[in-house]
Amino acid sequence: MRRIEVGGPQPYAVEVGPGLLARARVAERQVALIHPADLPPAFVATVQAALSPTLTVEVPARDDCKTLGVFSKVLSRLAQANLPRDAAVVGLGGGAVTDLAGFVAASYLRGVAFYTLPTTLLGMVDAAVGGKTGVNLPEGKNLVGAFWPPKAVWCDTDTLTTLPPAVFAEGAAEAYKHGLIADPTLLPRVLSPDFRPGGPGLEDTLADAIVVKAVVVTRDLTEKGERAFLNFGHTLAHALEAVTDHAVTHGEAVGYGMHYAALLSRDMGGADLTAHTRAFLRWQKPRPLPALTFEDVWPFMARDKKADSEGVRFVLLHDLARPYLARVPEEVLRGAFEAWQADVTRLC
Amino acid sequence: MRRIEVGGPQPYAVEVGPGLLARARVAERQVALIHPADLPPAFVATVQAALSPTLTVEVPARDDCKTLGVFSKVLSRLAQANLPRDAAVVGLGGGAVTDLAGFVAASYLRGVAFYTLPTTLLGMVDAAVGGKTGVNLPEGKNLVGAFWPPKAVWCDTDTLTTLPPAVFAEGAAEAYKHGLIADPTLLPRVLSPDFRPGGPGLEDTLADAIVVKAVVVTRDLTEKGERAFLNFGHTLAHALEAVTDHAVTHGEAVGYGMHYAALLSRDMGGADLTAHTRAFLRWQKPRPLPALTFEDVWPFMARDKKADSEGVRFVLLHDLARPYLARVPEEVLRGAFEAWQADVTRLC
């Protein structure tokens, strides 16, 4: 079992290891447990046995739960149960449900305690640490939410054995990204056959990938500075998700987006790291994209949440583990897009 | 003009005086202005001229805007306008719209800058200072929200001249409450004929009432301690609002509730301050209540947001400006309720 401390104004610990669902414990006497409809019933039963929740709220699976409509219904369930302000909200499931549960915890009675039990690799590497919570709007993803750190995170590695390989690979994209921006030792380990559910490399590689995020968010909880580096590859990724109406998964989009960001980094004068992002795409085997032009994706990049009044910022790399923020001229964006498209057509 | 500093992790200033709508200035280049449909159009035009907002969003009047449905629609308007994260949300109007606007500001892109221009006495004395934002659920008032302090508050006293006397009196109830819990010099000043829109006592009495709240919330932003004292009179008040389905206004309910809390304070061994709360009721002239029994209101007191797992806490007074928190035995609650009912039947 690995234990990772996340600092900041409200420090908390992330535990990574087998059997943690059964070992979850909270200080609060009343608990609302929130989980998606498609979660294995045994996971829910195990956590219910551990926490004896006052109420258990089932929400729609995947991003279907990340709406203000579901947010509203869950809050009403908590209010109907008279859940007091010294209660806790516990999110059990993938990143979508922990994002929803966190925003519920942040908002119910203006904030109650929050705990997460992520059950997907993506949820463990990305969503569970750092305190970003929220839901989508019809106008875009994650446009509403709060920074609301959990009081504890339990990453039960046993839950990953039920994941389809493609869903596991989604989380691997974020772990690989952590390798590129901060810990290059992760790069070969994520691509190793030992990094699989039940594999000998799983716990330590996963824990080291979480450490990268824990260090960054400890220094920058509300994304005023370096936390933005975690968005490496995400500007094109979000555009690909939007333009395909989420036919492309987040993990596939990040795999594609990291390669675009590596091309931009090179074209802006940095080291050529594209061999790394090509290697990841070969390992990930994302589904092919529809035919896209720069004009298709540009409006979505320009309205990315990372945009401010001065334009779209990209996270680029001078070299491995040397990220920086830059505004990239449109002609560079356009040129790299053509190179990216040629590469992904060949690779995927 | 009076300027009041509110401290804490994000300090800000409250300005009180005439002509402030026209003098509002914000650092952010893009602004969403939110106002209720029943606001005098001249107020909206004045603020639009001062701030040149990117978009102006009209919402339903009074508590009809404090729903998750309106919250959702306003957020979509901001997203459709591509409002960036370095933009500001400005709430103009009564406490309901500033509560809504604050929760929108807290949640849009996980938080943008927030400013308020309250135009009711209640909004100036109570809602505008302290960072509590939020909306209602069908299950109860203010059950959803965030602590999200404004960057500045402008209380333009000119706006109060359009208020019906009964609406002005609503805010006077909160100002009187600040006198009881912290600054007894306010008590005669609130009841003075000089304390009226355009009156010579308005600006200073209003500013001193705001100072009470500013001092308390500076020391206790998230209501872990003494901030709860601001709820003096509010446990019965919220029950009266709920049981009458809000036929009783908040200000009337607080007038009634302060008298109940004064009776409880006396019965629990404190000084007899009921002459003060009777004097306020005589001044306020709230509309009579329907016939109510203790059994009618008790369930609503018991599920008040101020309740935690251990029961309903009441704010009581040892004496003027000496508030404390107590759990009151049910027989004391019941006895005081009968005395309260006899008094209000005679007075109102």
TrEMBL record, chains A, B:
List residues of the 3-dehydroquinate synthase N-terminal domain.
Answer: 57-168
Cite the 3-dehydroquinate synthase C-terminal domain residue spans from the record.
171-307
Q: Which reaction does it catalyse?
A: 7-phospho-2-dehydro-3-deoxy-D-arabino-heptonate = 3-dehydroquinate + phosphate
- What sections of the sequence does the record tag as coiled-coil? none
Q: Which cofactor does it need?
A: Co(2+); Zn(2+); NAD(+)
- Cross-referenced InterPro entries, in alphabetical order? Dehydroquinate_synthase, DHQ_synth_AroB, DHQ_synth_fam, DHQS/DOIS_N, DHQS_C
What residues bind NAD(+), as annotated? G95, A96, V97, T98, D99, T119, T120, K132, K141, T159, L160, T161, T162
Query: In what pathway does it function?
Result: Metabolic intermediate biosynthesis; chorismate biosynthesis; chorismate from D-erythrose 4-phosphate and phosphoenolpyruvate: step 2/7
| Keyword field | Amino-acid biosynthesis, Aromatic amino acid biosynthesis, Cobalt, Cytoplasm, Lyase, Metal-binding, NAD, Nucleotide-binding, Zinc
Q: What EC number(s) does its UniProt record assign? A: 4.2.3.4
Q: Name one GO cellular component term.
A: cytoplasm
Q: Which HAMAP family match?
A: DHQ_synthase
The name under which this protein is listed is 3-dehydroquinate synthase
